[in-house]
Design brief:
About 45% of the residues lie in helices and about 15% in strands. The two termini are about 25 Å apart.
Length: about 220
Amino acid sequence: DEMKTNAAAQAASIIASYQSNYPADYKEQLEKVLIQMGYNGYDDLQQYLIDNAKRTEIVKQYASDHFDELKIRKISYILVKFSADSEKTEEPNEDEAARMKAVDDALAGGSEFADAARDHSEDSSTAPNGGYLGVVDVNTTTLDEAFLNAALALDEGEVSDWVYSESFGYFRIRNDASTKETLEAGTETTSETNEAGETEVTVGNGQSPYEELIGSYDTSL
């Protein structure tokens, strides 16, 4: 029932989007897409969304059941890039070493990893989010091999030594979560009654970590 309700809301949103983009023939445009995906046409939109939700739930359950085998990890990192026109060697040059030392000093001085990432990471796509990469596992193929191997070898809460990547530079990697309890924390909505008798609702991030994994880094599941 929940899937049906969600699918109906998603279908209405999709139809509204198509009506905005294709006011003259939005049904025909949706029909083409659904037929390409193996459905009969426009009237199967909600069924497609239900089927997709079922597949997602099955894969999420599989990932949870095979958690240790898949070595599922939530990962953040700090990147120090190669200096311009450097030789890109495992041994950093003076400029690279100075930037790496700034990271080390911040961490040694008590800075949280996320704060150090915001202040020092040279990856503009992840630094604003505290260096957060996402949820990965052994089937991930889109990441630098040296990076992934180092990330999967870390215990929960552990920060790696500097990891050399011939493609990007030097990484400090943090394993934010590698147990089910930690990984799943913060994804559910909870409610409590305060001293005034009012119900306070705490909303998690809304997305299952397994859904994040299969949506970004392990499409093989």
